[in-house]
């Protein structure tokens, strides 16, 4: 049975599309959101908390007589994310232009959206980059990262990029599964599950609490865990991880399968089809970048077993 919080959420909002699409298309992919977006109830606490944190950490730097690090390493990481976004948006725009209306989307109902509205929303949501960029800036500039991160010269290695993904995704899996099991925590995640048939731009749409629990805490836990076990991560390792993470996180929310999905699924890497199952079924596929933890935890469900998907195979 689904957790009580999930059952009530579906009952309140209705376990159906918000409206009937025309010809299987349209905006009938979203349930009613619990909270209004972008008001003072979000911006006020967020900006106040970030400002207070900066003041406290600035005093810490003065008392410990620490010098601020070079901002260039921080900018290189953020720049990589932005460049990756350009490629992801361009890639998705071309694919959607070609595939829209051709019944190539993951679910049988095809979500649509206004590109200008979604681009503006993606850049201005308080729970998105107005939390992620301050997190990166604060942890970097106030020297909250292990010393090795400030080494800009050591080249990256695939193993260290992989280790960051593996640890991050395990922590995410544990928190994500708890969010769906514990009613008092699920409320932080409910807004993100308004999107039962997600598209690319739904990736960073949720709540402030959800971003903190499911993105920021796992990110910093990954930093501390790898440092604790003696794995030295350098700036280039961190930058490549951040660039790949931020952009692939959007791709797994895509409404279309990607050309590499079948290969990735064969080796347990999470795909858009895997994550789409989580949005439509709730109780499965809690991992984002790997399905290994779901397979070990008994929470993996193939997209071929979901009736609303075009890839559904009867009797599978």
Overall body shape: globular
Largest sheet: none
Rg from Cα: 20 Å
Task: Quote the average pLDDT.
Answer: 88
Number of strands: 0
Give the percentage of residues in beta strands.
under 5%
Q: Structural class of the secondary elements?
A: mainly alpha
Q: Helical percent range?
A: 40-55%
Order of helices and strands: HHHHHHHHHHHH
Taking the alpha carbons of the first and last residues, their distance comes to: 21 Å
Q: Count the helices. How many?
A: 12
Low-pLDDT windows of residues: 4-36
Walk me through what this model shows:
The protein is mainly alpha-helical. It is built from twelve helices and no strands. The protein has helices at residues 4-13, 40-63, 72-99, 115-124, 129-141, 158-181, 183-186, 208-228, 235-251, 261-266, 272-281, 292-297. The longest helix is centred in the N-terminal third of the chain and has 28 residues, at 72-99. The chain is globular.
Reconstruct the topology from this structure.
Elements: H1 4-13, H2 40-63, H3 72-99, H4 115-124, H5 129-141, H6 158-181, H7 183-186, H8 208-228, H9 235-251, H10 261-266, H11 272-281, H12 292-297
Helix pairs in contact: 3-9, 6-8, 6-9
């Amino acid at each position: 049975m689904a957790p009580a919080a999930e059952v009530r959420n579906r009952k309140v909002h209705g376990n159906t599309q918000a409206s009937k699409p025309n010809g299987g298309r349209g905006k009938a992919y979203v349930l009613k959101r619990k909270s209004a977006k972008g008001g003072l109830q979000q911006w006020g606490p967020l900006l106040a908390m970030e400002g207070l944190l900066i003041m406290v950490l600035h005093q810490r730097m003065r008392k410990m007589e620490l010098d601020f690090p070079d901002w260039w390493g921080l900018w290189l990481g953020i720049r990589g994310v932005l460049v990756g976004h350009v490629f992801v948006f361009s890639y998705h725009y071309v694919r959607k232009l070609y595939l829209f209306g051709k019944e190539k989307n993951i679910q049988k109902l095809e979500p649509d959206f206004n590109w200008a509205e979604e681009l503006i929303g993606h850049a201005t949501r308080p729970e998105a980059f107005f939390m992620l960029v301050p997190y990166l800036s604060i942890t970097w500039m106030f020297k909250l990262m292990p010393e090795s991160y400030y080494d800009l010269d050591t080249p990256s290695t695939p193993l260290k990029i992989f280790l960051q993904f593996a640890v991050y995704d395990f922590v995410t899996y544990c928190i994500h599964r708890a969010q769906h099991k514990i009613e008092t925590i699920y409320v932080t995640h409910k807004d993100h599950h308004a999107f039962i048939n997600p598209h690319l731009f739904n990736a960073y749409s949720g709540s402030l609490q959800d971003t903190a629990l499911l993105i920021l805490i796992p990110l910093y836990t990954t930093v501390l865990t790898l440092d604790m076990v003696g794995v030295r991560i350098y700036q280039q390792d961190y930058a490549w991880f951040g660039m790949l993470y931020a952009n692939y996180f959007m791709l797994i929310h895509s409404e279309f399968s990607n050309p590499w999905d079948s290969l990735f699924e064969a080796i347990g890497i999470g795909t858009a089809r895997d994550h789409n199952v989580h949005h439509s079924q709730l109780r499965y596929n809690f991992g984002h970048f790997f399905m290994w933890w779901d397979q070990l935890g008994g929470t993996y469900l193939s997209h071929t077993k979901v009736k609303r998907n075009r890839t559904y195979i009867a009797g599978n």
